[in-house]
């Protein structure tokens, strides 16, 4: 279907690197270590992780649109989680956040068929990465999972100073890749930042939808498994 394309741009978190699975594993490890089982009144971390995941996704949405900065995102995702659970946010130990940032990017859970599909595509197309993630974390995820070699160019929004869905980061990435818009396509999980961001820029996009959520009418292409890309390309 997309054999006329030459350059494929991927998102990283939630598309290749399974952010929620890696974050959950990290939070499970730290929950007891920091005594959150006693603080939250629950031996299991489920309610804490659910609240954190919701708050983290919401705050990243604000970060994408420059409504909050990096320090605010880092502070509020745990403070808001404590508040939601009825715990004084001033009780949150900031060593927890620092250890979370040290441990989580080293986790190695990828979405199924990630290496297989990237290897398949690299033999046929030129691959690139555009991430709104923070530089140090992105670099550790790429290195720790042997992902960097798949991509000819890597665009990290923190370094560029522009976040997806701003058209300027797509233009920057195309310029770095020496790629043509009509011969390029973006693949990502975030409807706003990745898919509509690319589409509004005039670039084709594929919605990575592993949870099989309802697909809005304005989204032309979606996949539930990375392996489907081997059929499309």
Automatic annotation (TrEMBL):
GO MF, one annotated term: 5'-nucleotidase activity
Cited InterPro entries: HAD-like_sf, HAD-SF_hydro_IA, HAD-SF_hydro_IA_YjjG/PynA, HAD_2, HAD_sf, PGP-like_dom2, Pyrimidine_5'-ntase_YjjG
Superkingdom, taxonomy of origin: Bacteria
Keywords of this entry: Hydrolase
SUPFAM superfamilies (alphabetical): HAD-like (SSF56784)
E.C. number: 3.1.3.5
Catalytic EC class: hydrolase
The name this protein goes by in its record: YjjG family noncanonical pyrimidine nucleotidase
């Amino acid at each position: 279907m997309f054999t006329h394309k030459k350059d494929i741009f991927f998102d990283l978190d939630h598309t290749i690197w399974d952010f929620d699975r890696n974050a959950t594993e990290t939070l499970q490890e730290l929950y007891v270590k920091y005594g959150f089982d006693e603080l939250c009144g629950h031996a299991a971390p489920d309610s804490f992780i659910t609240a954190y995941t919701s708050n983290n996704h919401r705050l990243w949405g604000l970060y994408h649109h420059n409504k909050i900065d990096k320090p605010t995102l880092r502070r509020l995702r745990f403070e808001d989680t404590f508040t939601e659970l009825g715990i004084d946010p001033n009780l949150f130990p900031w060593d927890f956040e620092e250890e979370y940032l040290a441990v989580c990017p080293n986790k190695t859970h990828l979405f199924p068929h990630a290496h297989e599909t990237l290897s398949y595509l690299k033999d046929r197309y030129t691959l690139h990465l555009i991430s709104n993630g923070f530089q140090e974390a992105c670099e550790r995820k790429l290195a720790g999972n042997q992902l960097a070699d798949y991509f000819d160019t890597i665009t990290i929004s923190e370094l560029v100073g522009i976040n997806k869905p701003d058209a300027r980061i797509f233009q920057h990435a195309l310029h770095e890749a020496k790629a043509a818009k009509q011969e390029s396509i973006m693949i990502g999980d975030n409807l706003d930042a990745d898919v509509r961001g690319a589409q509004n820029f005039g670039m084709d996009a594929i919605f990575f939808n592993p949870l099989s959520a309802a697909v809005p009418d304005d989204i032309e292409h979606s996949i539930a498994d990375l392996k489907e890309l081997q059929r499309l390309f």
